[in-house]
Amino acid sequence: MLMHSIDTVKTRQQGDPHMPPKYGSLSSAYLKILRQEGIGRGLYGGVTPAFLGSFPGTVIFFGTYEYSKRHMLAAGIHPSIAYLAGGFIADFAASFVYVPSEVLKTRLQLQGRYNNPFFNSGYNYRSTVDACRTIVRQEGVSALFYGYKATIFRDLPFSALQFAFYEQEQTWAREYAGSKDIGLGLEIATAASAGGLAGVITCPLDVVKTRIQTQINPSEPTSASSALKTRQPQPPGETIPKATYVSHAHHLPQPLPIKRNISTSSPSTTLRKPDAATLDTSSVTTGLKIIYRTEGIVGLFRGVGPRFLWTSVQSGTMLVLYQALLRQLAVHPWLQDEGSPAS
């Protein structure tokens, strides 16, 4: 919740369809969104589905991680492999809950405020409920799982790397401190660095995931040229015609769904060449290749600054609280009576 505004900036940077891009550095993008759209529907757009998906997803994730990790360690599997595999299994189990909430969150973050005159995302949902209804009505229930494969490709490696780094850094910290109690400072440092490093490494997968989840797939295919003609970015300060919004078109006669092509605009202010390839695919591998070919390595790491900051703070908070919870459970009378192990 605390870092949701940073995640919004990252989503805007990665999914910006405008050319040249509207958002530059983390600080300038943050202030621009705050000044133009405010907090509630600007920086904290999509916070409701994020909250609704994060709690059950986190419970499933950590429950599965502890269960699988301990059973693998008890079976004699090498700790590093057990940590990696535990992260993979846990994230896969939680993905069925958090992916639909991630789709809603990402679209609402990219949209910003309702009837947004400052940013043309291609969406115009009134609320989270309206977004869910509109997506299901116009694109089908399966649209709530758009980017599922891309999300798995991003989150499974992230979780595996995060816990592998974290467990190894915890081992080094205990050796340095000469005790199992390494103190709050080292607890935060190991957790934040593990999450931040994993976030940077998986940033290209996050870029592809964001662009796949923020595309609109119509029931009938449309050409890239017609889609681009339909969705010309509007200058700041001008009201975007309602006809350009997909979710607002239900009250118009005979609405035609619009396909939002995935943006391949680079972070620089140089316009893309007219003959540059357009990313219009749900394949993660193909998406990575096209982004690299059209935008270079910089395009693959678009939004890496906000992602590093967000994953560092998220992991630092989550893992420190998680360890504190484990310590409390280890001395709980119920668990002591049952003879449950502390770790």
Overall geometry comes to globular
Overall SS class? mainly alpha
What is the number of helices?
13
Cα-to-Cα separation, first versus last residue:
29 Å
Low-confidence region ranges: 218-278, 338-343
Helix content: 55-70%
Global mean pLDDT: 76
The SSE string, one letter per element, is HHHHHHHHHHHHH
Number of strands: 0
Largest sheet: none
Beta content: under 5%
> Rg, please?
22 Å
Task: Name the features.
343 residues, mainly alpha, 13 helices, 64% helix
Structure, explained:
The two termini are 29 Å apart. The longest helix is centred in the first third of the chain and has 33 residues, at 79-111. This protein is mainly alpha-helical. The protein contains 13 helices and no strands.
Task: Spell out the blueprint of helices and strands.
Layout: H1 4-15, H2 26-37, H3 39-43, H4 47-74, H5 79-111, H6 128-139, H7 148-177, H8 183-201, H9 203-213, H10 224-230, H11 284-300, H12 304-330, H13 333-338
Helix pairs in contact: 1-2, 1-12, 4-5, 5-7, 7-8, 7-9, 8-12, 9-11
